[in-house]
Amino acid sequence: MFHEAFLAGIWGSAGSALGKLAGTESVVGDSYAISGVILIIMVLVNTWSSRHYLRSLDAAPNSVAPTVISAASSYVLSGFIGIVLFEEPSSTQWWAGAILIIMGLTLIARPKDRDKFT
């Protein structure tokens, strides 16, 4: 379940990056065909992301964990893609937030020890 939710976040980030690439003049230039192809690939990648998300929802006992894991992993990975691929600036606050999100993901995704209190 957690694996599928994390993959949904990864594919969602890839779809976001493709959407931004489709509008980047240095990549597309004046070609509507290149932009259209990238947008079609973006839709396919986002569809794949939705597939993984729905599979994680199907396997989970509730919708909270898959939603948080998918959204948080997508947010953090989109930030890294923005910094590395698009040379966007990052601040100390962003890095602190990303670390807190990763720590929260670790808490949500860890297995529950049901025998601890018995």
Helix-strand sequence: HHHHH
| Uncertain runs | none
- Molecular shape: flat
Radius of gyration: 17 Å
Which secondary-structure class do the elements indicate? mainly alpha
Domain tally: 1
Average pLDDT score: 89
Distance between the termini: 26 Å
Keywords:
118 residues; Transmembrane protein 42; EmrE-like; transmembrane helix; mainly alpha; TMEM42; transmembrane
Structure description:
The longest helix is centred in the middle third of the chain and has 28 residues, at 32-59. The protein is an all-alpha fold. Helix content is 78%, strand content 0%. It starts with a helix and ends in a 9-residue tail after the last helix. α1 runs parallel beside α4. The protein has helices spanning 2-22, 25-28, 32-59, 64-84, 92-109. It has one domain (2-111).
In brief:
78% of the residues lie in helices and 0% in strands. By secondary structure, it is mainly α.
